């Protein structure tokens, strides 16, 4: 089976000593000839969204540890392209990114909830062919679709 955007992969025992990827489930948001990108969807960050200084007036919402790349930046996936402009379809009604100011206003007005949007600190990224090589060596396995929201 070919890796594509919308695929879920899980780390195997080969990564049991890897602090970032031990027991991780990753949702791939991009997978093409340039490489792959995704987010760890099963590990919460140690603080909530409203515990970040710049979002202290926002409602309590979990943050997820998306991955080891760009750990100082926020990313998001969601199911509401009707409310957030500039989004990119990943697969099966799940979208990546878009206008964060719009999303933030909707979060603050309680229009967007954890049923609509998932916020990440950092992401996972692989150069061209890198993830495929890791799959071949047995570090990752494809798994059936998981519930994200």
Give the SSE map.
Layout: E1 8-11, E2 25-32, E3 35-40, E4 44-48, E5 62-65, E6 69-78, E7 88-91, E8 94-96, H1 100-108, E9 117-127, H2 130-136, E10 140-143
Parallel strand pairs: 5-9
Antiparallel strand pairs: 1-2, 1-10, 2-3, 3-9, 4-5, 6-8, 6-9, 7-8
Reported by name, the CATH topology is VC0467-like
Total number of domains: 1
Coarse shape: globular
Order of helices and strands: EEEEEEEEHEHE
Look at the structure and name the CATH superfamily. VC0467-like
Number of helices: 2
> Compute the gyration radius: what is it?
15 Å
Low-confidence stretches: none
| Category by helix and strand content | mainly beta
Q: Do you know the CATH architecture?
A: 3-Layer(aba) Sandwich
Distance between the termini: 25 Å
Mean pLDDT across all amino acids: 96
| Helix fraction by DSSP (H/I, runs of at least 4) | 10-25%
Strand content: 35-45%
Return the CATH class.
Answer: Alpha Beta
Major sheet characteristics: 10 strands, mixed
According to DSSP, the number of beta strands is: 10
Structure description:
Strands 1, 2, 3, 4, 5, 6, 7, 8, 9 and 10 form a 10-stranded mixed β-sheet that branches. Helix content is 11%, strand content 40%. A hairpin with a 2-residue loop joins strand 7 and strand 8 (94-96). The protein is built from 2 helices and 10 strands.
